[in-house]
């Protein structure tokens, strides 16, 4: 499987974008791909070797799963890299451009869902992040 990239431009200062992406209470608010899902809880130890963890669940209680990453590299307000339990990596970059913050996520595709479906899901979550950050 290849790498998938999703991106969004956020109308907010870099400090706010960084904070909203990494603060567990904020993560719980924006971390879902569709309105019938929610993030039950999140924790984040933003340091090399630290863990990012969240529980995603269908609102009707029919399904839930844990998402967990371990940080490999952190450059404050610029770059984050972590790996998942299955060894796949995720990289997130932050770039100031035209009075916006361009947030780019690149991740290794998994082999259980189509790349198109994975891209749509991650893009939907990133869109939720943008909307939440711009209005909170």
UniProtKB/TrEMBL annotation:
UniProt domain Activator of Hsp90 ATPase homologue 1/2-like C-terminal: residue ranges: 11-133
InterPro entries in UniProt: ASHA1/2-like_C, START-like_dom_sf
Top-level division of the source organism's lineage: Bacteria
A matching Pfam family: AHSA1
Family to which this protein belongs: Belongs to the AHA1 family.
Protein name, entry field: Activator of HSP90 ATPase
Organism: Paenimyroides viscosum
């Amino acid at each position: 499987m290849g790498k998938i990239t999703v991106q969004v431009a956020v109308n907010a200062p870099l400090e706010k974008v960084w904070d909203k992406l990494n603060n567990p209470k904020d993560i719980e608010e924006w971390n879902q791909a569709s309105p019938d899902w929610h993030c039950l809880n999140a924790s984040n130890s933003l340091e090399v070797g630290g863990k990012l963890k969240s529980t995603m669940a269908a609102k009707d209680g029919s399904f839930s799963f844990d998402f967990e990453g371990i940080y490999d590299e952190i450059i404050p307000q610029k770059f984050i890299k972590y790996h998942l339990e299955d060894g796949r990596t995720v990289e997130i970059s932050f770039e100031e451009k035209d009075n916006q913050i361009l947030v780019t996520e690149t991740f290794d595709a998994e082999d259980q869902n189509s790349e198109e479906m994975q891209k749509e899901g991650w893009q939907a979550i990133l869109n939720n992040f943008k909307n939440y950050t711009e209005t909170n």
